[in-house]
Amino acid sequence: MSEHAVHPVPQWWAENALIGADEYAVKYRASIADPDDFWRGEAQRVTWMKRFNSVKNTSFDAEDFRIRWFEDGTLNLAANCLDRHLPAKANDTAILWEPDDPARPGRTLTYGELHEQVCQFANALRADGVKKGDRVTIYLPMVPEAAVAMLACARIGAVHSIVFAGFSPDALAGRISDCESDIVLTADEGLRGGKAVPLKANVDAALEKVGVRRVVMLRHTGKDVPIVEGRDVDWADYAAGQPAECEPEEMNAEDPLFILYTSGSTGKPKGVLHTTGGYAVWVSMTHEYTFDYRAGEVYWCAADIGWVTGHSYVVYGPLMNGAITLMFEGVPNYPDFSRFWQVVDKYDVATFYAAPTALRALMREGDEWVKKTSRKSLRLLGSVGEPINPEAWDWYYNVVGDARCPIVDTWWQTETGGHMITPLPGAHALKPGSASFPMFGVQPALVDPADGHILDGANEGALVILDSWPGQMRTVYGDHNRFIQTYFSQYPGKYFTGDGCRRDADGYYWITGRIDDVINVSGHRMGTAEVESALVDHDAVAEAAVVGMPHDIKGQGIYAYVTTMEDVEPTEALRKELVQWVRKEIGPIATPDVIQFAPALPKTRSGKIMRRILRKIAENDTGNLGDTSTLADPSVVEDLLANRPHVA
Ligand code: 6R9
């Protein structure tokens, strides 16, 4: 396997980092040898209301399954993110907000101001009858009020469920009804790249399918939108007159904190449930060590709060650590391709954390957009969401970071709450494209996908985690069985990640991508089953099969094979209609890149679609389709090959 240059730990980092090579080795060993002792220590980063005695009470064995961390301790996460930083940090910046349009003013919220806004909003929710354990749906753009909403929920023990503001009304309705939430927090409109996103209109459309008691709407763009009397209320009116102090709810460490829906290999999105205590310790620890966070530095994670990266590394991790977290409403290419780096210069950003898809898109536009900015404040770069190809890594390192800043390529998942495998900038020489080494307390292993036995040494297999870590999801909301089935049944006694992975002779881990029916489009997870079900919902479609295809910018694109109903002609107009249909059903991130009409799909005699073949055709790797002898009708494949659309 050819590898790019290895980048040794720069001297400054070796001498100054919070975690150096020796310290990593010692701490890692300790975290595995005596987890109770290790985590009792790390748990001191939380201010507990009631100290815990029990640290780790977990088992992945089916008969005895349990995941409980710090289970007799109590805390409040909002108080940990805010109150305990006061009064010392009351006037220090908590959130820097940069709007979509650089000509408009940004906003700064100090810890004192954020505390006040969170308390007022928390009081308003309480006054409106929202109680501990109630689910609150949040459908907001990247504005400080999104963080206020999350923290206000955490303060009163309500469970937030954030729905990415790019999702469609249908997707929103499904998530509202799955968690039986009766209140939605939204805005009139979002703004991205100069375009308005009709959030309130989407909420109204969603609420034609599922009723809620209350909609709280932030006036963000000022657009005139219809108001439903009795149900809808203005954010400002809702919070007006509420006291600036609000007693935080005492939460058990294992009380739910949030639900976040994510795509799986089957059926509808799963409500990933995270609890309070373990998650707090996990995101605080990983944010500090991975990013070598130093007080006073500006830290920028460019993810949207609608994804787990936004939860853990825009809001909870940084605020736990009293950091300055930058929230960016916009997009990398508006008004032009320098936007990211102009924001870096404007706020003297020290750490920048983004997805490879954005980097690839910017790389394509040439180095000038980067080079005309200074970026001298940058100290560390991060990558998340998908494998970063070595070319993009080199560009990020050399052009963006001027060969000065280490890159932390953090592998983790919605399910894991925070970083699981990542280099630490002061501890590990970097290999472009490798997520490198496990975080403290994480025991990765590779197993043979066929029989599940553990593979040693330099090897490639399915990535599993052998034991629990504090930030682990606890259940699929409302469907614990699905949780066990999805993650612990394939390789009994182990957590299955869904990813393939290689370990090299130096022990570095290289994530190779999903090995289940999940594809990764622009760093966002998409279940192929979800797109298929959207397609077959269309009257013209009899059957659909969706696979990933290589895509220069998005990493993976969506390739859909569609069989139309008997009496329906597969036309260009229908192709366009189906693309729009999927966008409407799920959201723009699910836009199919290719739709190939197929009179039939390749199936085994038992009727199972042979996705392996469909993947090969989509990848244009048609030289060797492998064994097709079990196909019920091999001529189907010839037709697919003959009619493969030209893919740009
Ligand atoms: C945080 C997040 C999880 C899936 C995961 C994997 C892919 C994430 C990666 C990576 C290679 C990295 N993934 N980070 N693959 N290298 N550094 O993205 O969560 O949206 O749940 O996606 O993303 O395939 O299984 P989520």
TrEMBL record:
Enzyme Commission number(s) of this protein: 6.2.1.1
Keyword set includes ATP-binding: yes
Enzyme class: ligase
Domain AMP-dependent synthetase/ligase per the UniProt entry, residue ranges: 89-465
Cofactors named for this entry: Mg(2+)
Record-stated family: Belongs to the ATP-dependent AMP-binding enzyme family.
Name of the protein: Acetyl-coenzyme A synthetase
Source species of the chain: Croceibacterium salegens
Gene responsible for this protein: acs
